[in-house]
Amino acid sequence: MSQTRKIRFGVIGCADIARKVSRAISLSPNASLYAIGSRSLEKAQTFAKTNGFPDGAKVYGSYEAVLDDENVDAVYVPLPTSLHVRWAVMAARKGKHVLLEKPVALNAVEFEEITEACESSGVQFMDGTMWIHHPRTASMFEFLSDAHRFGHLKSIHTCFTFAADPNFLENDIRVKPDLDALGSLGDAGWYCVRAILLAANYELPKTVQATREPVLNKAGVLLSCGASLYWEDGKVATLYCSFLSNLTMDITAVGTKGTLHVHDFIIPYDEKKASFYAASESSFDDLVTKWASEPNKHVIENNLPQEVLMVSEFSRLVAEIKFNNSKPEKKWPTISRKTQLIVDAVKASIDRGFEPVQIQE
Known about the structure:
Blueprint: E1 7-12, H1 16-27, E2 31-37, H2 41-50, E3 58-60, H3 63-68, E4 74-77, H4 84-93, E5 97-100, H5 108-121, E6 125-127, H6 135-144, E7 153-163, H7 166-171, H8 183-199, E8 207-210, E9 215-216, E10 222-230, E11 236-242, E12 244-255, E13 258-262, E14 273-280, E15 296-301, H9 306-324, H10 331-351, E16 357-358
Parallel strand pairs: 1-2, 1-4, 2-3, 4-5, 5-6, 7-11
Antiparallel strand pairs: 7-12, 8-10, 8-16, 9-10, 10-11, 12-13, 13-14, 14-15
Helix pairs in contact: 1-9, 4-5, 5-10, 8-10
InterPro entries: Gfo/Idh/MocA-like_OxRdtase_N, GFO_IDH_MocA-like_dom, NAD(P)-bd_dom_sf
GO molecular function: nucleotide binding
Family: Belongs to the Gfo/Idh/MocA family.
């Protein structure tokens, strides 16, 4: 794709995650950093200077100015979750394609406002779940979908935790009820839910029940929580997410014929390669002193980091709409909505005294 055909991104907000995605946009072969907006012009100027924006990039002292720039094709929105509905809807109504940080909203009702605005304006929506775009994820899904090697999914266990420092626990937006009221459930639990959905081929569970004794801060924001998910056919899933435990990001998926293990599913140990372990028809030796065979390690190499692949795929879809009159890809908002519905159900179960909550599509 030529320079003139690259999708021009505007970034609204200078959150830490925006540094990583700005780098991804600059590395993407079909995207370019075109504009940055912050509530402070000085902050926007500093961000552009320190994050690889080209010399000619537009720097604005408001979010609105980015959305009003006719040359901006798409916006990346890394704002606090409580601001998503306002700015994502405004961006869509101004004809900008929307790459929105996760969690996408405080609840599914808010998210439907966003998707309605995107649909009525004919713009592409995608959330910022990067690991889904790694080629390892496609390989894992291929194994999970293989009736001969993996069989039918019976259970999946997911975990994402990290030990936040005292400053984070006191001051980060993810612990503030007016900015990111979902806390660890929205920030870390989102990834666990997406992994569960991937393993279940995006079939929603029937019932969700939160684990008792979640940890909340003095403002009532979740710092640590868990849940179990149940399907009508007997599948069971668990998730655990926390700001208070050592860095861990695991998936264990168990099928009738096979098992999948991955220990770095959100951010790979290595930016240029990632692995997972797959076992099929496992057994012991004759004396039951060891396994007859060990799980196979599958290593997948990738030239571009997963966040660049996310930006590139989003930009490809935007280009199809802009240059070829294609329709927006509905897969992405559908997956986001299902993820949000489960997050909502976990939160509702906690709020209702750990009652089982039925998922309503």
